[in-house]
Design goal:
Strand content: under 5%
Distance between the termini: 91 Å
Order of helices and strands: HHHHHHHHHHHHHHHHHHHHHHHH
Shape: elongated
Helix content: over 70%
Largest sheet: none
Number of helices: 24
């Protein structure tokens, strides 16, 4: 079959011609196969099936279309029919590697692992002149079925045949990560970079491994290399920003999030992250600037509304903060932490009763809040309601005995009861 190129003008014309004339017209077998593959890649299985059926009417017994039919049966989980068809075709076309791979795929999907492995070795023996590629093809089948160790076994044999095959090396690195041999995965990516130092994919993947291990400095270095090679890699910018944030370098994180925002259509989420970075740096004016940008795009973004409220709370503009917290809670009343912020804002405006009610509402949503329990105790202590104060202090102490001044506060409540 000719190589698929669904983005070129010729294919677009083919697709338009086919879809405007589903019940007739003539298309050659390769064209019908391309159409079926196009639909399959987009999970439009019914359309793929219709294309194959139409193609087989025009070109009965065409091996490419019959192979597509098997893939469709697999997508429909009709493994029994798929296996019967593939075995029937192999009796006629024993040289077709794709048919053997589909047979192995079906056997793995139906948990016939031993038979699948025997068929793998038979296939490899039949194609001694292209073993390197066969090992990779077989590994892909195992990978797609999440047999990572078995895929790795085949890949390592392929690696012994050609230690410079980058496709094999990439899959080896991936498998090592999946079987939790992280250092081997890192070493394999380093091997790839020894061969191809300007592989942005290898740098990106290496960053992913380091990030998963929470080695944020090395993850950052890897993402920096990836973006220096391909400055349009939006995912690398995003993950670099996450790594900077996790490494407490909020300034660099904000810069990377802004680069990420430049490259994507929907900018609200990265701008929200930028605002959070400036909030972390206690630059509340800049944080407000970016939160406002988010709200210009998404007026009902609760995270941005809460962020604005927190900034105004920190700037001691309590009435403004209350306005934004209430807007967020109108959208989602189950935000326990926001009720705490609202309570703090009310208390700072001397509306203690509303503050207490906000704290109590928060506890109905999440009981595991030692600091909030302690704050409620403080309110009752100030009102000389020592029994209630003691109740909340003890609840706080039970959850976390290291809550600030909790032992002293318990003692004060006990003293007040005397």
């Amino acid at each position: 079959m000719r190589k698929l190129d669904n983005s070129n003008e010729r294919f677009d014309q083919l697709l338009k011609s086919y879809e405007s004339n589903l019940s007739g017209g003539y298309f050659d077998a390769d064209e019908m196969e391309q159409l079926a593959e196009y639909y399959l890649r987009r999970m439009r299985v019914k359309d793929a099936k219709r294309a194959v059926e139409f193609g087989l009417k025009l070109h009965p017994n065409n091996i490419g279309l019959e192979t597509c039919k098997i893939r469709i049966l697999i997508e429909q989980d009709d493994f029994h029919t798929a296996l019967l068809l593939v075995e029937s075709l192999l009796a006629q076309y024993s040289f077709e590697i794709d048919l053997h791979l589909l047979q192995i795929d079906i056997l793995l999907k139906t948990k016939q692992e031993q038979k699948a492995e025997r068929n793998c070795h038979k296939l490899i023996e039949q194609h001694t002149e292209e073993k390197e590629g066969i090992y990779l093809d077989v590994a892909y089948v195992y990978l797609n079925n999440e047999y990572y160790q078995k895929a790795l076994d085949f890949l390592l044999i392929g690696y012994m045949l050609n230690a410079n095959n980058l496709n094999i090396l990439f899959e080896i690195a991936f498998c090592y990560e999946k079987v939790n041999q992280v250092q081997n995965s890192i070493d394999t990516y380093q091997r790839i970079l020894d061969i191809e130092p300007y592989s942005d994919e290898a740098w990106f993947n290496l960053g992913q491994v380091y990030y998963a291990e929470r080695n944020f400095p090395k993850a950052i270095d890897s993402y920096e290399f990836a973006t220096s090679i391909n400055e349009n890699d939006s995912m690398a910018w995003q993950l670099m920003a996450h790594a900077y944030y996790q490494n407490d370098n909020y300034k660099k994180a904000a810069e990377a999030y802004l680069m990420y925002a430049e490259q994507i259509e929907h900018k609200a989420t990265p701008l929200l992250y930028v605002a959070e970075c400036y909030e972390k740096m206690e630059d509340f004016d800049l944080a407000l600037h970016y939160y406002s940008k988010v709200l210009d795009m998404q007026t009902s973004n609760t995270e941005a509304l809460i962020g604005v409220g927190i900034c105004y709370l920190e700037k001691e503009q309590f009435q403004k903060s209350i306005t934004y917290f209430l807007q967020a809670l109108e959208l989602d009343s189950n935000l326990s932490e926001t009720w705490v912020y609202l309570g703090e804002a009310y208390i700072n405006t001397d509306d203690v009763e509303k503050g207490l009610n906000a704290y109590l509402t928060s506890l109905t949503l999440n009981e595991n809040q030692p600091e909030t329990l302690s704050s409620i105790g403080n309110l009752y202590l100030e009102r000389e309601e020592f029994s209630l104060a003691l109740r909340y202090y003890l609840a706080s102490f039970e959850l976390d005995s290291t809550t600030e001044n909790i032992q002293l506060l318990v003692a004060m409540a006990y003293y007040g009861l005397k």
